[in-house]
Amino acid sequence: MEMNWKGLPEEVLSGALSYLSERTHLPLAIIGPGPTINDIDPKNIPDEVIRFRMNMFFAEPTPRFGRRVDGYFWANDLDVMYELMKSTFEEKIYDYKLFFTPNEIKPERPTGKAVADKCRAILKPRYDHWWLIGHHADVVRNMLLRPLPTQTFQALATALILGFRDIHLVGIDMYRNKGTRYAHDYSDDIKARLAEKHRKPGYEENAHSERRDIAFLQHLQKCFPDANITNASSVSPLRDVLPDSPLMHGKPINVTPRPIVPKPVPLKDPKTEIERLDAEVRALRSSRSFKFGQAIFKPAARVKAGLKGIKLIANGNGSASASSKAEETQPRPKVPSGPKTVAKTSKPAAAAAPAVASRPAKRGETQQPAPIAAPKKGAVDLLAICHETTSKTGGYRPIKNYVEETSSQGRETALIDLRKLDRTKKGKIVFPKAKRTIVNSIAAFEWKAVNDFLASRNEGVYLYLHEMDWIFNRIKREQPDLFDAIAEGMRRHPVLCVSQLQKDYIDRTFSTPFTKLIYNVARDGNLDPAMVKMEPEVANAEKLVLMVGTIQNRKGPQLYGQVADLAKARGLPYRFLWAGHQTEDVGELSENVEWLGHQPTDELQKLLRQVDRFMLTSHDDPFPLSCLEALSWGVPIVSYHYSGICEIIDGMPGCGVFYTRDADDALNELERAMNDRPDPMRLFFHARPFIDCNHFIRLLDEATSNEHLALVGT
To answer: Where is this region: Disordered (predicted)?
Structure first.
């Protein structure tokens, strides 16, 4: 798509966003809540000046800087903030023009579905400013370094990308006033509903920092050398890096009637650009910021480094190896169009024969155990107990990422592979002493040693589960003793859940003392916005529909096939693919589905980049990682409603949810989603927190270090 000089597609700028894009020749004031705004005379900001406000600015006693708010920016998902904003909107205290937030207002946020519906109704037009920033590759690469720049500088980046070049930062004190956080105080009622971090002076620890804000500002100045950014705060460290705004000296902002013509930008030589970006990646990889949380690039070197400190307790001879593969960025291949492989019998090998040409496995494709490290004296910081550590399925990968990262930070870890240590499941295992122990998946309960361990120890033990109704009910029906052991373990220990759907199920089904939501994470997803699928969809062209998962009854291959059969009967130009090998008898499979069999990781990523929709037909699926990977490439999801992925695709363009197991209903929703134009970059940014392992690691660290969870059993 042709881009204009501002860096955004013309179709975006011609929509509701044209309110701002047509006014970029005017000055812009980004007005913060710092105490120094009391030093500024509002009369010196003419009515023509565009105004951006942020977070809970509306708690100020009067609209001192005018009723009109041209752009309102926020990222905090707070009940009290939404309620105050709603009241100021309804009472016409402020005239909001555009809303900018990466948040999706879900029915439970703020309290009560009615309030949430009301907020969604009035927050229009609303844009995800992270999505807008994502259109500028240089800016988004820097923005996604950790810690994140504060809302002020996210708003500044948005303004520059929109085309504003005369920008005044007003009341951006960067928390230099240690006595108070804001120019206005909150009422006691508001204070009682805010966490301490939203009330006390200073930066939020670990979330933001002054140094990071300054570094991001300087990067923006390099990206937009024609911009005139000025400071209007007498105490802000911005005084040392920006010229004074006339507001600092009691003078008005000058408004010129003519637009500012941008300086010509010379065309960049592609070869030179690649060399520059390669140098930038190398610099980021060696930087402190990258080491502790860089969200875009994923060098294999970091993964290898993370393996070095892990003690893998596996087979007795200690033989183990590790391998990793850097993400490939190759052009999208064509989907194999060879003969379809259809299973007519219950034989897994025949049913799952791949329809693509076979080839030897490339080096690094097969996940191998991490090497054994010599144990250290004393307790390890983290002990992870897994029933196996070699598969590519979702159950093991998140905890593997967590163990690797914990080790790379210098903390001693131990990783138990139960299947390699004791295939009989009845032997005795001496587990290392640990400050924190995570038992991954209910499959670990099949080992007698694990149940003995859980019965004898309560302190610092957590269950991280990936199962729901289908599996629990099957175990209760077929293995009642195992089900009782699992229920007893869940009664004694806190449970970490991968989705709200799973958490609700466990809360209502088991007598669990404490449950905590820690959304699952997929490290194999795409983290580079430049790799997002961006080709416009062509009307009436063949549409590729993909499902990824083992062929088993829980995954719903029968429904998937019925939808494919019905689509053919209707004459719809849909082509249905299923990637994954067969693991159990599922009956006859549809001839209108191409059963591709197991696909190596790199081939699967290529396939995800080119399909039009990912369709999930599972009877239940707590939080499927394959869906996250699809979203990271900008591919919309259409899912049966009983899946945790529905919690993050609600309202996303091109996505859909069906509520019955009827093929007609499922196909109708797929067809509706196909006709709903997707927004690949928005999907990428929406999925990013679930692909960024640093986000997952921080939450899991917090969940397993809370003192009130240290001992919950009896």
So the answer is: 316-373
Side-chain-side CA neighbours of residue 566 (13 Å): 16
Report helix, strand or coil for 473: helix
State yes or no: cis peptide before 246, omega within 30 of 0.
Answer: no
**Token output for 89:** 């909107």
Among 17-26, 152-161, 555-564, where is mean pLDDT lowest? 17-26
Which residue pairs, CB below 8 angstroms and at least 24 apart, start in 531-539? 531/329, 531/609, 531/633, 532/633, 532/634, 532/680, 532/681, 532/683, 532/684, 533/332, 533/609, 533/610, 533/633, 533/634, 533/635, 533/680, 534/1, 534/634, 534/680, 534/681, 536/1, 537/612, 537/677, 537/678
> Average pLDDT of 574-603?
93
Count the neighbouring beta carbons within 10 Å of the beta carbon of residue 311: 22
Q: Which residue has the tokens 């620890």?
A: 205
pLDDT value, residue 202:
62
pLDDT tens digit string along 45-56?
999 999 999 887
First-to-final CA distance of the chain = 62
- Read off the pLDDT of each residue in 139-165 and give the average, rounded to a whole number: 89
Interval 525-536: pLDDT, tens: 787 788 887 776
- Cα–Cα dist 622/620, whole Å: 7
Tokens at 233, concatenated: 């705060």
Q: Give 220-252 as a 3 state SS string.
A: HHHHCCCCEEEEECCCCHHHHCCCECHHHHCCC
